[in-house]
Amino acid sequence: MLIDTHCHLDAAEFDADRDVVQAAARAAGVGCIVVPAVEAASFAKTRQTVARYPGCVAAYGIHPLYVGQAAEEDLAVLRQWLARERPVAVGEIGLDLYVPDADVARQTFFFTEQLKLAREFDLPVLLHVRRAIDPILKQLRRYRVRGGIAHAFNGSRQQADEFIKLGFALGFGGAMTFSGSTRIRAVAAALPADAIVLETDAPDIPPAWLNGGRNTPAELPRIAASLAALRGLSGEALAALSAANARRVLPDLFPHTFCG
Length: 260
Fold this sequence. Notes:
Blueprint: E1 2-4, H1 18-27, E2 30-36, H2 43-52, E3 56-60, H3 73-85, E4 89-94, H4 104-121, E5 125-128, H5 133-142, E6 148-151, H6 157-165, E7 168-172, H7 182-190, E8 196-198, H8 220-231, H9 235-249
Parallel strand pairs: 1-2, 2-3, 3-4, 4-5, 5-6, 6-7, 7-8
Helix pairs in contact: 3-4, 8-9
């Protein structure tokens, strides 16, 4: 079974055809989809989305690109949702230093406060790490959590090893399918087998064959095949090890019938 460990199925880009998108993913063999929220205002929509579709599970968090419109009171809201809903993870959280004029101090405040919540509730985290791997690792060493997934990993092997030491798996998706992405492909090919999970980040980060079009979770089998080819495995073997890794770092997947 394929597990998409990061898919924004609740995004507005899917409002017109979400049923079709989810059905296509199931038909393609994607049995479980982790849907991370990005802001407190979207928590209810995330919950409604996962409740509608078997095999979909939620994470709740405040994305670094949404902290500019977030209030500190949103952290209290998040705490209430974590206590009431018991999601599979806190996420999507992290830092994004790619955007111009990023408010690093504000991003860091929301990131560290959410790490504290993850630690309080003993939940893993789904990390957004764009151009911010070393600052994120610094905070993870300061605020130890039970691990999780470094989503859309695109760092060095040394950085990957540091995440692994802290109990994290590394998420690989569409970016890895481009032949020109030599560094990420080399890392994905050489990492320990128990460090890899699959993701789409749909509707974002489309794989090479979509030519920049909307990504969907139904693309996961081809993404898995691309990674399998890099590692000299069958697609089935890669799917199985990725699913086992996802269940290890996101242990609350187990209670869900289609994910366990």
